[in-house]
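Annex B. Sample input.
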Amino acid sequence: MEVERQVERSTVRDGVFLNCSFYLRSSGNYTLVSQLGDIGSRTNKHWFIVKESRGKMERLMTLTPRSQSMLLSLDSTTRKTLKELFSVLKHPYIDPIYDVDIIKAQDLIVTVHSFCGKGSLKDLIYQTQCTDDWHQKYSHKNRGLLLLQVQTFGRQILEALFFLEDKGLPLHGHIHSGNVMVQNFVCRLTGYENAFLGRSSKLQPLIRKKLRDNKEAIDSISFGHLLFEMSAGYELDEPHPEPRHLLTLDQLTVEVLNFIFERENQSYPCLREIAAHSFFKTIHLRELDSHNPAPIHLTADMKNLLKAIRKGKRVPHGNIKRRKQSVDEISVSNTQKTRKPSLRQTSKLSSNTPRSTPPPTGRVPHIPPPPPGGIPPPPPVQAVRPAASGRGALLGDIQRGAKLKKTVTNDKSTPRV
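Annex B, continued. Sample output.
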C-alpha cells in the first residue's frame, strides 16, 4: 500500500514538474533550479527553487490546484491588481510576494516568494532543515524556544498582523509556525495570500466548533496555538490547552495562554488586546526603530478588490469596478489633453475667420438682444483730409467731384502781322 502511494505521488510530481517547466519557458521571468520534496503539510502543493532571469536571485515558487472556494477569477486585470497590491506591502516583519499567476490549462495557481535557506519558524523549533520531508522532520517533540525568543517572535508576528489590518487586508486565517520565515532571528509573516486564493486554514478542522459563533476569532486562536508551539516544542492537539499541556511551561506563558483561551464570557481577545498583555511589555523591537514607512497609496481597483474579499463576494471575470467618469469630467479631461494655442495664434485665427461663418458644430450661435431704447445710429463718418499736395491734391479734388475754375487760354501760336 505504501509503495503504491509513493508511485502515485511520484507520478503526480512528474506531471507538475512538466507543467512548471513549460510555464517557466513561456513566461521567461524565471529559470528552474530544482524541485523540492514535500516540505509542507499540504499534499497538493508543490515547491520549486527558481532563479530570476534578470536579478539572478533565488525564489521559492509554489504550484497548487485552484480552490473551489476562490473568490477571484485571476484574469489579467485581477492578477495585475493583486500583484500591485502585494508589491506595496513593505514591512520588516512581512515576507514579500513577488508574483501571482495561473496556468489556465491545468488550473494551477503560481505564487513566488522569497527563498529563506534557514527555513521557517517551525524548522527553528524542531531544529530541522527546511528542505527535509514534512512527515519526517516534524514527527518528534522538541524542548521549545527560550522565553525571550517566544516573547520577541510573538511581538514581531503581532506587528505584522497589525500592518496588514491597517492596510485593509482581510483576516489572515493561516497563522502557524510554517508561515513564519526566520532570518537573523527576525520573523517575517507569509501566507496572507491564502485569503485571496480561497484556501482553508490548517487549524480549521481542529477549531471549527470554536469558530461557529465567532469567525472573527480565528487569528486570535491561531496565534495562541503558535505561542504554545514555540513554548512547548510541539503542536497543540486540542482547540484549547488543557492542564496537562501547561505543566512544563513558564508561568508567564501560562498566564498569556489563559488570557487567550480561558475567558469567562467564552469570547476571545482581539490581537491588539493580546499585544497589550504584560507578557510583551518588556519587548523592544529594534527593527521598527530604523523602519521609515513610506505612505502607501491604494488604487481604486485595490480597494474594490479588498472590499469584495472582506465581504466574501465572488469577483467574476474582469469585474473590478471602476469609477465611471461623467460627461463633464471627460470633456474637461479632453480639454486638458489638448494643447492650448498661444495669444498670437488666437489673435491671428480671430482676424482670419469671417464673422458670418457659422460654427463647425452646425448649431446657430446665440445672438444677444439689442439694448433698450432701439438700435443706436451708426457713428458719423469723418472725412479724411489727404495729406498729399500738388498733382495728388488735384486728383483727389476730381475724385470728390469738386468744380474746377474756368480758365482763359491766351493763344500765342498765331503769327504776328
